[in-house]
Amino acid sequence: GCGNSALSYDLHELGYTDVTSIDFSPACIAAMRARYARCPGLHWAVMDIRALTFPDASFDVVLEKGTLDVLMVEETDPWHVSPQATASMHRVLAEVSRVLRPGGCFISITFAQPHFRKPHYAQEAFGWSLRHAACGDGDAGAFHYFLYVMRKGQPLDPCDVALGRRLHQPP
After folding, report:
1. pLDDT at 114
2. So what's the pLDDT on residue 64?
3. What angle do CA 54, 157, 97 make, to 5 degrees?
4. How far apart are CA 4 and CA 50, in angstroms?
5. What domains, with CATH codes, occur in the chain?
6. Which of 14, 94, 111, 127 has minimal Cβ neighbours within 10 Å of its Cβ?
7. Contact 170, 128 (CB under 8 A)
């Protein structure tokens, strides 16, 4: 869900001239189309992240910034995610994996710490490797955010494979 973020436009201004953005809100997409009508390389579509209508292997890069966090918003215990939220996250990530080309990259930017998010990403079925980095300015009162990078067609580290398997074990 691109929402009303300027990220797509910022990418366009950096030279990425073919950027497709989706959101489930028709009003949001209409507003973004109107706001950036002068940028023909920006494409907008109303779509549900759980059921992407793009063909298989159609993107070199998929980037999400906080969209997956919405799937966890009603969870009361991040250590014990409900089966419904886990299934929803899996469905979205399977769709991302499906639309990535071999060698493609999925980038996820979130406040979710690795011990909470990596088990969802570390599924062998997605066919990607997994790396992450903490980002932030280092101020004592500042929140860090996390950058996760998955590369389609590269293997998961054995430790990540084990981490992903724990997600589906009973607590």
Report:
1. 94
2. 96
3. 5
4. 20
5. 1-47 (no CATH), 56-167 (3.40.50.150)
6. 14
7. no
